[in-house]
Specification:
508 residues; alpha/beta; Rossmann fold; globular; disordered N terminus; ATP-binding; ATP binding; transport
């Protein structure tokens, strides 16, 4: 409830009774939210809860059907006045808007370059870029090519660009999705420093632990409605998840420690020996049928590269991969599929989906030759398979012909999982399988791990998410490209995290 008559003049931004419909679909219903100066305010909710629609209204990309948005107590500018919106708010999206081929200075002043007599004044642009970077303590060269920077640095460039317009309200959309532990710590430190300088943040994340680490307040949306806004300290994790899902309790994921042990005679499904690549060296391990192995470590540890090598997405420099005792040709996706390896890749938008195609077309992509002659599957067969996977994985779609670009992130990831399972693989490789999806979608995706394990398949889960790793019978920790430790099911969070960070909590 909004009960302070003077609060509206103090709030950086307010949404008051905002509603938005797309045809018969209500994307937002009477949503109200207030963000106060200098705070980091979390916006959380399941995919499809209305977060993206609310952000589009708060940034002036869409006009609400009902209600209003106010900045500092004053009505938001007209949607057409883009300069006025840039002075008030900016969004740093999960998928960067930085143009990699341009320099840092060019990105900072894109579409507003300094000119002299109609010609760009490059010297003045670089000088002003340097001053802007120094003011906000961003340690990159103004003439550096943006594509050569780290993800972390590019995010800071986007924040600096927004601040240069005069905006002091920044929306961060999944800012840590592509960062490792040290990078996240540095980003959070910069956010806290900017808060002290009067910058206010709206922080959108599916990583609920981050909400408690960096945010002072949180707003929960569910089914297009505002559920609660509260100080983070007043909303424990179980209550936060309950607000997001409408159900009591935390994430309902099977802990591998509660499973019966594997039979001693279980056959080895996958053997990795002496594998080496650009960011990993001498990696060896085996996975038995009916076993789930976790592969974790910092983003730069090499865990993703190893998983991609097993799936044929990346060619290792040396070493061998054997499936059921037979050598797998390196860097060959068709060969990996043929040998019984299915994969959920890291980036569903670029590696996992054809966004312009339907659920059925995406799900059946790897089995077109099975469904029809010469690799051309009849639409009826594709749609029948799509319907089967919609039912099996709980994909929320209008039907198998629903174009995947119109699905929520969690349902898109289920379609990627459907494609991985289509070939009935003996070895399933899951790379960050629940990244950027909501709590209920996480539960659905991770329940697949239990199901295929019970079918006697081998599973590799390459992830930095603790909830993903709880499904694993063993977790291998990679540090600086090598396997540094192994944890059986039942590990303690602190021990695993410390190993990922390269420290020991139990040194004498």
């Amino acid at each position: 409830m909004i009960d302070d008559a003077n609060a509206s003049t103090r709030a950086v931004v307010e949404a008051l009774g905002v509603g938005k419909r797309f045809g018969n679909h209500a994307a937002l219903r009477d949503v109200s939210m207030r963000v106060m100066p200098g705070e980091s305010h979390a916006l959380v909710g399941r995919n499809g809860a209305g977060k993206s629609t609310l952000v589009s209204i708060l940034t002036g990309l869409r006009k609400s059907d009902t209600g209003e948005v106010r900045f500092g107590g004053e009505a938001a500018p007209p949607v057409a006045d883009r300069d006025a919106w840039r002075e008030r708010v900016a969004c740093v999206y999960q998928h960067s808007t930085i143009i990699r081929e341009l320099s840092v200075a060019e990105n900072l002043f894109i579409n507003r370059q300094h000119t002299r007599n109609g010609v760009i004044d490059w010297r003045m642009m670089r000088r002003d870029a340097r001053a802007l970077l120094d003011h906000w303590k961003i340690d990159v060269r103004e003439d550096a090519r943006a594509g050569d920077l780290t993800v972390e640095a590019r995010q800071l460039i986007e924040i600096a660009r927004a601040l240069s317009y005069g905006a002091r309200f920044i929306i961060l959309d999944e800012p840590t999705a592509q960062l490792d532990g040290d990078e996240i710590k540095r980003l959070f430190k910069r956010i806290e420093e900017l808060q002290r300088e009067g910058v206010t943040f709206l922080f959108i994340s599916h990583h609920l632990q981050e909400v408690y680490e960096i945010c002072q307040a949180v707003t929960v949306l569910r089914d297009a409605r505002h559920i609660v806004s509260a100080p983070v300290s007043a909303l424990p994790r179980d209550k936060l998840i309950e607000a997001m899902t409408g159900e009591r309790g935390g994430l309902n994921v099977t802990d591998a420690a509660s499973r019966d042990p594997l039979p001693a005679h279980a056959a080895v499904a996958l053997q990795v020996e002496g594998l080496a690549g650009a960011d990993y060296e001498d990696v060896s391990f085996a996975v038995k049928r009916g076993e789930v192995i976790g592969l974790t470590g910092a983003t730069s540890s090499g865990r993703t590269s190893v998983a991609e090598a097993i799936a044929g997405l990346r060619k290792p420099q040396r070493g061998s991969i054997r499936v059921d005792g037979e050598a797998l040709p390196p860097g060959d996706v068709p060969a990996a599929l043929k040998r019984g390896i299915g994969c959920v890749p890291k980036d569903r938008h670029h590696e996992g989906l054809v966004l312009t195609q339907s659920v059925a077309e995406n799900a059946s992509m790897t089995i077109a030759r099975v469904l029809g002659k010469f690799g051309i599957a009849p639409p009826a067969k594709k749609n029948a398979f799509g319907k089967k996977m919609i039912d099996a994985l709980g994909i929320v779609a209008q039907g198998p012909e629903h174009v995947v670009s119109g699905l929520s992130g969690g349902n898109q990831q289920k379609v990627v999982m459907a494609r991985a399972l289509a070939t009935n693989p003996d070895v399933l490789v899951l790379i960050d399988p629940t990244a950027g999806v909501d709590v209920k979608s996480k539960e659905a995706l991770l329940s697949v791990v239990d199901r295929v394990r019970d079918e006697g398949k081998a599973v590799i889960v390459a992830s930095g998410e603790l909830d993903d790793l709880r499904t694993c019978d063993r977790v291998l920790v990679m540090f600086r490209g090598r396997i540094a430790a192994e944890f059986p099911a039942g590990w303690e969070d602190n021990d695993l995290i410390a190993s990922v960070e390269g420290v020991s909590l139990h040194e004498e």
